[in-house]
Design brief:
2 domains, disordered N terminus, alpha+beta, 431 residues
């Protein structure tokens, strides 16, 4: 993608020069090379994240279940999961603030920063500041783990701490070689358990929905309801994710208070998930048709398809504009615009593009203009109701998270608990 510079070379130029195309070509080559390096860096970061999360997720959950009282462990595990959801919520809120700052903070007041606004599709926020803040917070909160004892006291049924078991009563620890020898047998035994597989598959389906929302909900809100990236992050971090955390916590309280049996948990889960699905159905009718984008999902015939052929437009140019014909174009050049006017209060920011050949042909009249940014739709009033329905459905569906998780812990042998949770997380990540 070639993001065009603020020197107004993104207009239609009939001289047929190739300087802009060559410049964008060099920029594209450099971007691809940088992207390859970033993929390697992200792969290493994800590997380290996977190794570092093992003590918290598989081992930490098994640890809490072993040392907490049987009646209290559902609540403690629910608190653990709820807090882990509040982390991404804080990240979205932090991102909402950071995305209002230009990515190059040292270029504040420059021509590029003066021309672009946070609502501009070409705007890139200071995402890296949030990463620095969260990384520093992670390092600080990790320090107390070094001061935990080697063994925690067992909690009796009254909720008080009992004595730490003697070292002599402990079973001899297995070496890594012993574990590797037992690994195939343990793995096959888990895979041959129909109940375990069904529980893991149900959680995989639930996680796939969460992953889809976490990945695409931002962009969906932007395109479908004409909101900004910062505001969509704010809504997700302040409304959507906290509702999921509350649902997980309430599910833990239900498990503690009612002590749902292994037969009752599936019925409870089916009932809650059915209600959640019913709440999602209205979302199919709360949207607008996809905006027409020339040469992307709208390819007219005749002159409009070739009207900018002599404009020397870069193939990967990206500076979307909305024409007076209510069609979105990838750049002013692709709309055939030759002139522009600036905002009265900002000499660097374009108010509108004029003399647009393609738009004039499309609307069949003169006075063809285009304004910066994508075309709005008629659905912004649906934004808050949609977020309410998604959050309510997420809250009700999250009520089943803790009961199903406790069912996994109760249906595998005690000595296989940590290994079963590890296999569960592996299958959830892969599937």
């Amino acid at each position: 993608m070639c993001v065009l510079s603020p020197d107004r070379q993104d207009l239609c130029s009939l001289q047929g020069t190739t300087n802009m195309t060559e410049a964008c070509g060099k920029t594209e080559i450099k971007r691809i090379a940088d992207t390859n390096n970033l993929w390697m860096l992200m792969a290493i970061a994800q590997l380290l994240f996977g190794v570092g999360s093992v003590p918290i997720q598989p081992f930490g959950i098994s640890y809490v279940d072993d040392f907490a009282g049987r009646g209290n462990s559902p609540l403690y595990i629910a608190i653990l999961f709820a807090v882990s959801v509040f982390g991404p919520a804080f990240g979205f809120l932090l991102g909402s603030v950071m995305l209002r700052i230009y990515v190059d903070v040292d270029r504040t007041g420059s021509v590029t920063n003066a021309e672009l606004a946070p609502t501009d599709p070409r705007w890139v926020g200071a995402w890296w500041i949030g990463l620095l803040i969260s990384s520093a917070s992670l390092a600080l909160t990790s320090a107390p783990y070094f001061f935990f004892p080697r063994s925690m006291p067992l909690e009796d049924e009254s909720g008080t701490a009992a004595a730490i078991p003697n070292e002599d009563s402990k079973k001899p620890a297995f070496s890594m070689l012993d574990f590797l020898k037992m690994f195939p047998k343990l793995f096959v035994r888990l895979l041959l358990s129909p109940l375990f597989l069904l529980l893991v598959l149900s959680q995989c389906c639930f996680s796939s929905v969460i992953a889809g929302l976490a990945t695409f909900l931002n962009k969906y809100l932007e395109r479908q309801y004409s909101t900004t990236t910062a505001y969509s992050n704010l809504l997700i971090g302040a409304v959507n994710l906290p509702s999921v955390a509350v649902g997980i916590l309430v599910g833990g309280v239900i498990m503690k208070r009612t002590g749902l049996s292994l037969k009752t948990i599936p019925r409870f889960s089916v009932a809650m998930l059915t209600i959640s699905v019913l709440l999602i159905i209205p979302l199919f009718f709360m949207g607008c048709p996809t905006q027409r984008v020339a040469k992307v999902n709208y390819t007219p015939h005749g002159f409009l398809s070739t009207c900018y052929s002599n404009c020397s437009c870069p193939v990967n140019a990206f500076n979307p504009v909305c024409g007076s014909d209510n069609i979105e174009y990838l750049s002013p050049c692709h709309a055939g615009c030759k002139e522009y006017t600036k905002e009265p209060k900002n000499k660097f920011r374009v108010l509108k593009y004029t003399d647009c050949v393609c738009i004039a042909y499309s609307q069949g009249s003169g006075g063809a203009t285009a304004r910066p940014g994508p075309c709005p739709n008629q659905c912004p009033h649906f934004l808050l109701p949609v977020m309410f329905l998604i959050s309510l459905a997420g809250l009700i569906a999250s009520l089943t998270h803790n009961p199903i998780y406790m069912m996994v812990l109760r249906t595998v042998p005690h000595e296989d608990k940590s290994f079963a949770i590890g296999v569960q997380f592996l299958l959830m990540r892969v599937l």
